[in-house]
Design goal:
The protein is of the alpha/beta class and about 220 residues long. The protein folds into 2 domains: about 5-15 and about 85-210, HAD superfamily/HAD-like (Rossmann fold), CATH 3.40.50.1000; about 20-85, DNA polymerase, domain 1 (Orthogonal Bundle). Helices cover about 45% and strands about 10% of the residues.
Length: about 220
């Protein structure tokens, strides 16, 4: 069924940023004594807001500096402007959705500065103007529904009539908790995990317009 609006996650859905971000976080943690690869970092923190990462990290390395979140956001934002690429097929899918006249929003557990940098680098910031939500813009990050409820409101749509596009189990849980239909992009998360929580998995961004009944 054609939705009233499409609500996107950013990392791993629009922006092929997981590898870049995880490498930066892994390097930071290694400097603090917690050695892990970028892949291990992704497995540990996929879909988590930085605020939710803090207690997990502090349990391993001790107290983080009070400005750790700000400094991490600066490092990630600088990297994004130089290296970030879109997820294959994501920009074409976004164009098809906009051409069909559907409003779009983006809801990310990234910090506001990072999210803006990613969308500008991809050239899609205008597509989401006034409808960009970071964990800093709502009371609770994903997996709480706050971000997707706010995104649906910004699109003037009932959450039950919206489709959320996510690549993590935490994000999919947020969309489902908001009452949205959820499509799970099974690139970094196994399709069976999405099915198990009630999301519909798909494997290629080129499939997205058809899954949204746009043609």
């Amino acid at each position: 069924m054609r939705p009233a609006a499409v609500l996107f996650d950013c990392d791993g859905v629009l922006a092929d940023s997981e590898g870049l971000v995880n490498a930066i976080v892994a390097q930071d943690l290694a400097e603090r004594g917690w050695r892990m690869t970028a892949d291990e970092c992704q497995e540990t923190f996929l879909g988590m807001a930085a605020t939710a990462m803090v207690p997990v990290i502090e349990a391993r390395v001790g107290r983080l500096p009070t400005d750790w979140l700000v400094q991490l956001s600066h490092r990630i934002s600088g990297s994004m402007l130089a290296e970030l690429q879109p997820v294959p097929g994501a920009l074409a899918a976004l164009r098809a959705i906009e051409s069909a006249g559907l409003p779009v929003a983006v809801a990310s557990n990234s910090a506001r500065e990072e999210l803006g940098a990613k969308l500008r680098r991809l050239g899609v910031a205008k597509s989401f103007e006034g409808r960009m939500f970071s964990y800093q813009d709502v009371p609770r990050p994903k997996p709480a529904p706050d971000m997707y409820l706010a995104a649906a409101r910004a699109c003037g749509a009932n959450p039950a009539d919206c489709v959320v596009v996510e690549d993590s189990a935490l994000g999919a849980q947020a969309g489902l908790a908001a009452g949205c239909r959820v499509l799970g992009f099974a690139r970094h998360t196994d399709a069976s995990i999405f099915r198990g929580i009630g999301a519909v998995p798909f494997a290629d961004m080129a499939e997205l317009p058809q899954l949204l009944s746009l043609g």
